[in-house]
Amino acid sequence: MGQFRGVTLPLWSLSVEDGLYAFTALLFMFSLHKSPLLTASIIVLLLLGERYVEDPTTKYRLFHTFVSFFAGNLVNIYHDRLRRLSWVWPAIVVVICRAGLADGLGLASLPLLMAATILLAICLPQGTFRLPDLSYGIYIWHGPIMIALLDPVGMGRNAQWVIATVLASIFISALSWYFVEKPALRLKRQ
């Protein structure tokens, strides 16, 4: 059910993620994972390389994903200093970027948006209550649910479709968490 144009929607990124994690492991081996200069240089090289790629899928899957990953790495490097900021500042940057007001920065607006989005998540007031970890389930299940609603049900791409996909993804992910993932995680201790 997750197939769309020959791609399994929730799983296409696994090979990209594996490549990024392998590269990060190499950076760790050479103690370069905390180098802001190297990380910024990688972002600049990726942005320069993207200019020569015509295919939008390749741009998104490789360049945008890699740039976002390394923008997150820059936030991680400066995590202790950045988390002291008020959430208002990264929120302003996100709004500026999403409104198109940062388009004058060209390709540099993408890492700025990604870093500000990650920083906003870090700086927002954190809840004190525990929620089940539905993130992986939502990641895996949203694609098949989306396709199931688009094609067989014939639901159009509108607000109803988005709401139905979100609610169904949360529900199925909760079932997956409580009946598959959480019991499987208990087995790792054995």
Description of the molecule:
The chain is mainly α and about 190 residues long. It has two domains: about 35-125, no CATH class; about 130-185, no CATH class. The chain contains eight helices and two strands. It has helices at about 15-30, 35-50, 55-75, 80, 90-100, 110-125, 135-150, 160-185; strands spanning about 5, 5-10. Strands 1-2 form a two-stranded antiparallel ribbon. Helix 2 (about 35-50) runs antiparallel to helix 3. The protein is globular. The two termini are about 35 Å apart. The mean pLDDT is about 85.
Strand elements, count: 2
Separation, N- and C-terminal Cα atoms: 34 Å
Inertia-based shape: globular
The order of strands across the largest sheet is 1-2
Order of helices and strands: EEHHHHHHHH
Query: Quick one: biggest sheet?
Result: 2 strands, antiparallel
DSSP helical segment count? 8
The portion of residues forming beta strands comes to under 5%
- Mind telling me the C-alpha Rg? 19 Å
Task: Look at the helices and sheets and give the structural class.
Answer: mainly alpha
- Domain tally: 2
Q: Name the helicity range.
A: 55-70%
Q: What is the mean predicted local confidence, pLDDT?
A: 85
Instruction: Indicate the low-confidence ranges by residue numbers.
Output: none
